[in-house]
Amino acid sequence: MKTAICPGSFDPVTLGHLDIINRACKIFDHVIVSVLVNPEKHTAFTVKERIEMLKQCMGNLDNVEVVGFDGLIADYAKIRGAQVIVKGLRAMSDFEYEFQMALINKKLNPDVETVFFTTTAENMFLSSSGVKQVASFGGDISNFVPGCILGKIEQRLYAGGIQNES
Ligand code: PNS
After folding, report:
1. Dist. CA 37 → ligand 1 center (Å)
2. Is 93 assigned a catalytic role?
3. Which helix (DSSP H) or strand (DSSP E) does residue 56 occupy?
4. Residue range 17-46: average pLDDT?
5. Is the minimum distance from the CB of 41 to ligand 1 under 6 angstroms?
6. pTM for the full model?
7. Interval between CA 101 and ligand 1 midpoint (Å)
8. What strand order describes the sheet that includes 113-118?
């Protein structure tokens, strides 16, 4: 049984995230999509909201689970017996940060491997922060986020991106 964790802030989930999750579900027996805390980011949606939105997007994937965890991913992987952390890589600009994270996580939990999936060409430019910026100016984000949660995202971000969480 191979279990992978797809971690992220998912603030909000984008079509790029969904592509990576879908591909992970084809390779691993069980995929745990984990909403974790990135202390370097201010969020527009609460963890609960991000989990809800992710769950809405999982469609007919039957080997996926969506959870929140307030702690280190290395610890969470240990708790859940996950062997792999899956991250999406868009460009070289992602690499240095992701490489550092992978090495830290390996030191903290030698049993877990970080695996990078190359983003598809059409998602190379896509990021949650880009989505938030476009939406905060009232721009069209329908090509960037899943249709089923578009209304919820617009409702929040067109209104200025309120942070509901302490
Ligand atoms: O979508 P993001 O913001 O790039 O995801 C980053 C995230 C949340 C995966 C990362 O910040 C994280 O793993 N947070 C949990 C704390 C942790 O384990 N950090 C890594 C060691 S410093």
Report:
1. 6
2. no
3. helix 47-57
4. 96
5. yes
6. 0.94
7. 8
8. 64-69, 30-36, 3-8, 84-89, 113-118
Cβ–ligand 1 contact at 73 (below 6 Å): yes
Work out which ligand 1 atom sits closest to the CA atom of 35: 8
* Nearest alpha carbon, ligand 1 atom 16: 72
Q: 7 CB under 6 A from ligand 1? A: yes
- Residue 122 DSSP symbol: G
Token couple for 155 = 């409702």
What pLDDT, on the 0 to 100 scale, is given for residue 92? 79
Is 40 in contact with 31 (CB distance < 8 Å)? no
Supply the pLDDT for residue 160: 67
Chain centroid to Cα 150, Å, comes to 17
17 is a catalytic site residue: yes
Please confirm, yes or no, whether 55 is among the known catalytic residues. no
Nearest to 104 by CA among 114, 90, 89: 114
Of 45, 9, 10, the C-alpha closest to 152 is 45
CB 126 within 8 A of CB 16: yes
Digit-coded pLDDT (tens) for 79-116: 999 999 999 999 877 899 999 999 999 999 999 999 99
Q: Are 56 and 38 in contact (CB under 8 A)?
A: no
